[in-house]
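sanity check this chain:
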Amino acid sequence: AEEVMPAIDRKKNIRVRDRATMTNLILGLNGYTVASNAVSRALNGPDVVAVPLNYPHTIHVGTVTRRNTSLSRPGKTFMEALRRRVKPFCA
């Protein structure tokens, strides 16, 4: 779950489970989401942009893996790319 901030009362909250629906709602309703995922211009187009939060608390992002197993080569490559991508944002 990407509950990085406490629930904030708004006039309307819409919860979705897939990225395509979320993107369509953001565009159609001039909405927003708070998430730790990267925004891809190739997937979302130029109208969905990432804006850094001015949030005073530390946000912990992690991964879940099966016990006693190793990541595949593509999995390791992905994790290395992810670490490089988020490193500039780490304190």
About this structure: The mean pLDDT is 81. The chain has one domain: 19-89. Residues 73-86 form the longest helix (14 residues).
